[in-house]
């Protein structure tokens, strides 16, 4: 597993933090300096944090456990959806559903409802219905899919959650902590990094910064998962 160096993080713009007046007191130890009123993140610390998070998700994957990615910022939705879909990782890129972690049975019901609507449409069960009813069913199906499409194959609570922007996803952090589910997160300087188990202090606004961190975390998780598959192969 290749170690990311501070230079790699610098090239991706991970070092750009928030304006001084927005800096959270608990993020200050991870700031290298203030420049023109903005915080510059200490990338040596970020590189260490990223490595710890990568080690954690590698072990998670090697134990055949699940990782849920939560990133609902509009500018990163499509990229997150693609990388997660390509690697069979559940994801949330729409508004977080309150109670997702604390009332997972309800989530399962909605996923089943979505699947049933899709099957009914595909099997022609809607063909005998009046036009206005099929329109309503289509709207209902699309509404549920918009929220639950990325988690449709999640059959139980995730074993860990990877979050982009814990300020925006504060409810995810609260629910995860309530359920004692380990959290990894890209945490900008306007947030409290102590709220998550594996904080990676860095720029959570720039696409290049976010995607570098996301790619590193997901690649490590997938590498860990491969060890499970290789162990299952029959020995000749």
What's the layout of helices and strands?
Blueprint: H1 6-11, E1 16-19, E2 31-35, E3 38-41, H2 43-62, E4 67-70, H3 77-86, E5 91-92, H4 104-122, H5 131-148, E6 160-164, H6 170-178, E7 183-187, E8 198-201, H7 207-232
Parallel strand pairs: 4-5, 4-6, 6-7, 7-8
Antiparallel strand pairs: 1-3, 2-3
Helix pairs in contact: 2-7, 3-7, 4-5
Main beta sheet: 5 strands, parallel
Instruction: Summarize the helix and strand pattern as letters.
Output: HEEEHEHEHHEHEEH
* Individual helix count: 7
Question: Which architecture of the largest domain does the CATH hierarchy give at level 2?
Answer: 3-Layer(aba) Sandwich
Kindly report the average pLDDT value. Answer: 93
CATH topology of the largest domain: Rossmann fold
Oligomeric state: single chain
CATH superfamily (homologous) name of the largest domain:
Glucose-6-phosphate isomerase like protein, domain 1
Number of strands: 8
Considering DSSP H and I runs of 4 or more, what fraction of the residues is helical?
A: 40-55%
Number of domains: 2
> Runs with pLDDT <50, length 5+?
none
CATH class category label of the largest domain? Alpha Beta
Radius of gyration: 20 Å
Strand order of the largest sheet: 5-4-6-7-8
- 3D shape: globular
Distance separating the two termini: 27 Å
Q: Strand-residue fraction?
A: 5-15%
Structural category is alpha/beta
């Amino acid at each position: 597993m290749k170690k990311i160096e501070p230079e790699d993080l610098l090239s991706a713009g991970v070092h750009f933090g928030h304006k001084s007046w927005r800096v959270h007191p608990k993020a200050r130890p991870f700031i290298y300096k203030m420049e023109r009123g903005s915080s510059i993140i200490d990338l040596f610390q970020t590189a260490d944090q990223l490595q710890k998070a990568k080690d954690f998700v590698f072990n998670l994957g090697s134990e055949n456990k699940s990782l849920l990615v939560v990133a609902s910022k509009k500018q990163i939705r499509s990229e997150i959806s693609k990388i997660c879909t390509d690697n069979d990782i559940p994801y949330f890129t729409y508004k977080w559903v309150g109670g997702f972690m604390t009332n997972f049975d309800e989530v399962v019901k909605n996923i089943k409802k979505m699947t049933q609507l899709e099957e009914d449409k595909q099997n022609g069960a809607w063909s005998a219905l009046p036009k206005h009813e099929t329109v309503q069913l289509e709207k209902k199906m699309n509404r549920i899919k918009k929220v639950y499409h990325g988690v449709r194959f999640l059959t139980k609570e995730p074993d860990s959650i990877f979050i982009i922007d814990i300020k925006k996803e504060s409810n995810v952090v609260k629910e995860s902590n309530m359920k004692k589910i380990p959290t990894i997160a890209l945490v900008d300087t306007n947030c409290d990094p102590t709220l998550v188990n594996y904080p990676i202090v860095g720029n959570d606004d720039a696409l290049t910064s976010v995607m570098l961190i996301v790619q590193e975390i997901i690649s490590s998780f997938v590498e860990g998962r491969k060890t499970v598959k290789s162990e299952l192969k029959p020995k000749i």
